[in-house]
Design goal:
Order of helices and strands: EHEHEHE
CATH superfamily: NAD(P)-binding Rossmann-like Domain
Number of helices: 3
Distance between the termini: 32 Å
Length: about 80
C-alpha cells in the first residue's frame, strides 16, 4: 500500500517523536517555515494531510488539493 503524503509547514520543527509517528503512517515532507498560498498549493497538491503553523490556508488551496483529507493547525 502506498503511504499517504503529509506536509508539515511550521516555523519550528516538530519534536522527533511526533515526526517518527507521522513517518509510520505516511511520507512526510517539511516545507520552509513560510510559503505563499500558491506555493502551499503546489507543495500540498498530492498530500492527504497538512500540519500548519501560521501560514494562510484558503479556499484556493483547498480546491487545488484534491487528495486532502486533514488540515491541522499547530500552536
Amino acid at each position: 500500500m502506498t503511504k499517504r503524503k503529509i506536509l508539515v509547514v511550521l516555523r519550528h520543527s516538530l519534536c522527533p517523536e511526533a515526526m517518527r509517528m507521522l513517518a509510520e503512517v505516511g511520507e512526510v515532507s517539511v516545507a520552509p517555515r513560510f510559503v505563499s498560498e500558491d506555493e502551499l498549493a503546489d507543495l500540498a497538491k498530492d498530500c492527504a494531510g497538512i500540519i500548519l503553523g501560521g501560514n494562510r490556508f484558503g479556499r484556493d488551496v483547498i480546491e487545488k488539493c484534491k487528495k486532502l483529507k486533514v488540515v491541522s493547525r499547530h500552536g
